[in-house]
What we know:
Elements: H1 2-16, H2 30-33, H3 38-42, E1 59-63, H4 69-78, E2 83-88, H5 91-99, H6 101-108, E3 113-117, H7 127-136, H8 142-158, E4 167-173, H9 181-194, E5 195-208, H10 214-217, H11 220-224, E6 231-232, H12 233-243, E7 246-253, E8 259-261, E9 264-274, E10 282-283, E11 286-290, E12 296-298, E13 304-306, E14 310-313, H13 315-321, E15 330-333, E16 342-343, H14 354-357
Parallel strand pairs: 1-2, 1-4, 2-3, 4-5, 5-6
Antiparallel strand pairs: 5-9, 7-9, 8-9, 10-16, 11-14, 11-15, 12-13
Helix pairs in contact: 1-5
Bound molecules: S-adenosylmethionine.
S-adenosylmethionine (SAM) is lined by residues 7, 11, 22, 44-46, 64-67, 69-70, 88-90, 93, 119-121, 173-175, 178-179, 226.
Amino acid sequence: MALEHSVLDRYSEGAESRQPDLCCPVDYDASLLALLPQEIIEKDYGCGDPSRYVREGDTVLDLGSGSGKICYMAAQLVGEQGYVIGIDMNDDMLDLAKKYQVEMAEKLGSNRVEFVKGLIQDLAVDLAAVDEQLSKTPVSDADALLRLQTWQQTQAITSPLIKNNSIDLVVSNCVLNLVQDSDKTKMIDEIFRVIKPGGRVAISDIISDELVPDHLKADPTLWSGCISGALQEQKMLDAFVKAGFVAVAYDKWEAEPWQVVEAIEFRSVTITAIKPQDESCLDVGHAVIYRGPYSEVYDDEGHVYPRGQRIATCARSFDLMTSGVYKDDFIGITPAELKPAVNWCKPAGTIRPAGETKGASHTGMESVENCC
Ligand SMILES: C[S@@+](CC[C@H](N)C(=O)[O-])C[C@H]1O[C@@H](n2cnc3c(N)ncnc32)[C@H](O)[C@@H]1O
């Protein structure tokens, strides 16, 4: 609880006046900054630039939106058809971001940015609604507390602040490290819940090269300064894989640490990942060839791709391997004739001979047995 208060207090100060200790230097796209009010640019407490991953038409959720800088940058990239939601727990930061909403809507040509009050580890709970409920029914005893908790659980189910499968891209800039360790798994599960199948993650954050000892974690200045709450570099990626994401990667990795404390390096990175489509894995005869340069690679679903071999894939995996982050590494082989769809149940690494992909009429075809 003391750490949570230190985060609240520190970012209230950050909303009031610029705190130079709270950010690392970031090379933002100057053309996107040009539209932003100077105060928003100055009160930047980020450590990377996840706005680079925004596409036209996206619905974007920015976790820990602070002054709104990434939201207002993203709003220029999503265009008329897109939408941007910034979520933060701190009223002072929310007030700062909202202060420029009308001005930015005029500059953008429409009001496509919204700021909401919530915790990033519990994206269903609407903290503005909780504030309103508390003002109507203050909590004065244990019974009232239980009633509030029941009301909150109902609100989260019946009208979640951020709905299931509603977001194309979740971004964040230097916030995940501020969430209590005991809530970090829940936070990543929540990110998974709100992203649409096929949706993406682009998160800039601080990681550590070694596990951070408890005495550093207990230091409120190091914690609220985006240092000692950092996940260790391997644990960060593992946490996203465990939540169900695929194509989990460090897209950006600052070679130079931002801070070194007791010989532990804390550096800025950007993590990218994809939520898999939730459709069944149906085999209609596709294959992919891994180009190299490694002798073989595995994906996050346990499939193996030896270099140069035609590996049978279901239609869902085919789409994933031949688009987005994997597309430069794989060659897609579409069958001449689509086979009747069967549920996928071949072992990982099953070879699909060239003859099979060329169609039944091809002489010398070697067929891969369908096992379902
Ligand atoms: C380091 S600042 C980053 C702000 C912004 N992303 C930027 O690039 O300038 C962290 C922000 O996350 C917010 N924050 C920290 N923990 C949070 C949590 N558990 N839920 C929601 N917001 C949180 C803070 O209030 C603060 O505005």
